[in-house]
Design the sequence.
């Protein structure tokens, strides 16, 4: 743990720092850094640069073990990657830009640093959620450049596969992506070399099935992969929802929060889960915790207004609804969701028709849970169903995936079981 004390003394600033082992309390390293008062306007980044220069070789055994596990023995590169990870958690556009800078700094120090590549890819994936179509194309080209770099430095590695997967998703070419997964499964149905594969087809294809609501087949593909690598299987939330209902989902979210895992995402889901159950007091309590965790306020903004809509406090034409719709933080996927919750079909369709590539990916990932906020009147309307098909998340996409499960069944033994085993002709 790094602790310090900052003081202004006469015409200079003093910073005393100590690197302390958390478990034993032993001081591993200490130093005093001086700045002239002319430097007192230094921004935190500049102060961190001075700290990094001083601390670059002073890592305790635990930190060094973690450093090696992330894929580098370069202490400076590791510290830059850690700065990137810490900055990444804030998720605002300026912070994401800074997180990308730190990750690139780490790669400049160690071009084969797998952890830094992974961090940079996560940065770009998150950036894509908040940018225009034109900026999304720039991000896609950056990710393709990372794919090229990895082909030179870490070909066939897991992070190389992750880069190719993110590049394909940014291109929004899900047909191509699923087709390649199906080919890989046919070529290697036993997953004999699963540990060494750049892309892991079974869980990735299983995830696509879960997102499309093909829960039993998706669960089977995910479970099969974990059996092969001999790791206990923790069913995804979609499976938990199918097996245990919303209460089971809420228990899983509480477990993740208690373990400090995906806290912001879990608190977001928990808040809306409480609202769906009509427990708005608990929903607001979870929202209060979310406000503390979500420093950028992006998740909290959307969740707060879903809770308000479910409570009937965000009706069309109200002052709160006007403010929400006009707020620059609000994105069209949120405007459309609120419109559908309020039963405003035409407005919801208008907003969702405007979704860019990043928002369409978000819709694909979250529709299974988002639709629980909507009434049967909306869900069963032909115009809403046609909208989902236009966005690539409707019955046509589901039928395509069902056809692929049937195609693979002779190789994998995984079928559609209780789910409707019907399909439509769909040409790759």
Sequence:
């Amino acid at each position: 743990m790094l602790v310090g004390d900052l003081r202004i003394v006469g015409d200079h600033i003093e910073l005393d720092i100590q690197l302390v082992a958390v478990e034993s309390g032993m001081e591993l390293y200490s130093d005093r850094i001086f700045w002239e008062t002319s430097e007192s306007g230094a921004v935190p980044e500049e102060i961190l640069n001075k700290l990094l220069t001083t601390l670059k070789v002073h890592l305790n055994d635990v930190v060094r073990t973690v450093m090696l596990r992330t894929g580098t023995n370069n202490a400076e590169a590791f510290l830059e990657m850690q700065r990137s990870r810490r900055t990444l958690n804030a998720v605002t556009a300026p912070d994401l830009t800074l997180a990308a800078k730190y990750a690139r700094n780490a790669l400049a120090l160690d071009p084969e640093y797998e952890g830094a590549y992974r961090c940079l890819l996560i940065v770009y994936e998150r950036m894509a959620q908040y940018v225009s179509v034109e900026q999304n194309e720039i991000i896609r080209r950056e990710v393709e450049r990372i794919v090229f770099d990895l082909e030179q430095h870490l070909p066939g590695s897991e992070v190389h596969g992750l880069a190719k997967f993110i590049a394909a998703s940014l291109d929004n070419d899900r047909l191509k992506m699923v087709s390649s997964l199906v080919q890989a499964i046919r070529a290697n149905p036993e997953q004999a070399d699963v540990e060494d594969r750049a892309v892991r087809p079974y869980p990735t294809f299983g995830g696509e099935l879960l997102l499309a609501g093909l829960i039993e087949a998706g669960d089977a593909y995910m479970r099969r992969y974990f059996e092969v690598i001999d790791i206990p299987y923790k069913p995804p939330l979609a499976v938990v929802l199918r097996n245990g209902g919303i209460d089971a989902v809420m228990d899983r979210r509480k477990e993740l929060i208690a373990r400090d895992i995906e806290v912001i995402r879990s608190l977001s889901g928990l808040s809306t889960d409480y609202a769906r159950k009509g427990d708005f007091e608990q929903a607001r309590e979870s929202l209060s915790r979310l406000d503390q965790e979500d420093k950028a306020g992006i998740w909290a903004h959307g969740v707060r207004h879903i809770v308000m809509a479910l409570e009937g406090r965000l009706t069309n034409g109200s002052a709160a609804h006007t403010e929400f719709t006009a707020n620059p933080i609000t994105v069209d996927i949120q405007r459309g969701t609120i419109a559908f919750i309020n039963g405003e079909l035409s407005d919801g369709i208008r907003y969702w028709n405007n979704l860019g590539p990043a928002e369409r990916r978000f819709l694909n990932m979250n529709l299974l849970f988002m639709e629980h906020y909507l009434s049967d009147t909306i869900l069963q309307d032909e115009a809403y169903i046609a909208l989902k098909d236009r966005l690539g998340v409707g019955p046509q996409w589901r039928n395509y995936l069902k056809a692929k499960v049937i195609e693979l069944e002779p190789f994998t033994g995984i079928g559609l079981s209780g789910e409707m085993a019907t399909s439509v002709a769909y040409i790759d």
User: Anything to note?
Assistant: Confidence is low (pLDDT under 50) at residues 22-26, 421-428. The beta strands are 2-9, 12-20, 27-36.
